[in-house]
Amino acid sequence: MASKLPILTFSLFLGSFLLFFSLIQGGNVLEAQNGPSELKRFEFQGVEMAVPIRIVLYAPDEETAKRASDAALGRFRDLNARLSDYDENSEIRQFCDKAFPGEFVCVGEDLWTVLQLAVHHAELSEGAFDPTVGQVVRLWRHARKSRRLPPEKRIRETLQTVGWENILFDPEKQAIALSEHGAKYNVRLDLGGIAKGYAIDEALETMRILGVSRALVDAGGDVGVGDPPPGTDGWKIGVASIREGEGPTEFWTLSNCGVANSGDMYQYVEIGGKRYSHIVDPKTGLGLTDRLSVSVIAPTAANADALASAFSVLGPEKAVRLAETLEGVQTLIHRLAEDGNVQRFGNVAE
Question: By C-alpha distance, which of 103, 105, 102 is closest to 94?
Fold first, then answer.
């Protein structure tokens, strides 16, 4: 008889997700990672990168578990100090504030890696995901607060700052620069669509190095999972319905991968009778108007994070076609039609 699987149920809404958790430990027999010794379940919580962090792990004792979780949370803090566009002292803000055309600046391993990943996904999605949307995102934040669309002229001006091609790399020196156009128009880098996923991956790897490989990290609704809980095939994840108040509609059993989500269930604004998401299309400078819930499974949480943003912008049909070309990537997209019906798209088996 198969063991019950731990169930992780979450509802994911936009950039800052509301998380509904139900974790049920499966079975009474706990199987060790490398032998018969018993592993115990531990859970830790914190707040990093301005989102709630939840870590569930299996370890032989509390000391090992706490050491691993403390190190994982510390990794989040370290990355936030490097990648945050809110912190004026962060490495990425310092680069943007002082950038001159073609002047290369040596950067740390994390910023270098995340920027390369970001540009890769920008190329892959033909700009549906773009790490140079900083100015556009700021403009749209103001529009949401004021409940007024930005003037068309201001949108056109801001769109001139968008273009991942304006990020230049010097691999030999591990240095980056902005092109002449990028510096002239004050391109602002924004890694909000990938940094959290990267931090999840790094947190899992940090714990793995310390001997804890059976772990789950949730960061505001985006999830990374390591090896399965003892005696199970994986972490069972239930994806909530796009309709508020409904329970999970589908379940996935996963290990050693990332899951990210995007949508407009709660973070949206109505302007002139039209509903706009907080998710901005890099090509129009406006929030999306489709009612979508996008979930992505990918080999890493960073991949899943970036692709969830890109798939939201691309729309269901294009997103599924792209997902089918990517190894290890699956997506499930629900669209709430005007008549109230829910349309399902994806390459995840029902």
Answer: 105
344, burial (CB in 10 Å: exposed 0-12, middle 13-18, buried 19+) = middle
Laid out side by side, the sheet with 7-10 consists of 7-10, 235-240, 248-254
C-alpha span between 313 and 323 (Å, rounded): 14
Amino acid at 60: P
Side-by-side strand order, sheet with 40-48: 40-48, 51-59, 215-219, 222-225, 257-263, 292-298, 330-336, 342-346
Q: Are 45 and 265 in contact (CB under 8 A)?
A: no
Dist CA 306 CA 79 (whole Å): 17
Tell me how many degrees the CA angle 46-47-49 measures, rounded to the nearest 5: 140
Q: How far apart are CA 146 and CA 148, in angstroms?
A: 5
Q: Strand 257-263 and strand 268-271: pairing?
A: unpaired
| C-beta neighbour count of 186 within 10 angstroms | 14
Amino acid at 62: E
Report pLDDT digits (tens) over 33-56: 444 369 999 999 999 999 999 999
Q: What is the mean pLDDT of the chain?
A: 87
- The string of pLDDT tens digits covering residues 284-316 is 999 998 889 999 999 999 999 999 999 999 999
Kindly report, residue by residue over 4-39, the tens digit of the pLDDT: 333 333 333 333 333 333 333 332 233 334 443 699
The beta strand positions in 273-327, using DSSP E, are: 274-277, 292-298
Residue entry with tokens 């607060």:
145
In eight-state DSSP terms, residue 273 is T
d(CA 59, CA 37): 10
- Lookup result for tokens 């063991």: 3
Query: Does residue 287 contact residue 299 with C-beta atoms inside 8 Å?
Result: no
Provide φ and ψ at 169, rounded to 5°. Answer: -120, 140
Nearest to 59 by CA among 224, 202, 226, 221: 226
Q: Kindly give, in sequence order, each residue whose CB lies less than 8 Å from that of residue 63, ignoring residues fewer than 6 positions away.
A: none
Residue 303, amino acid: N
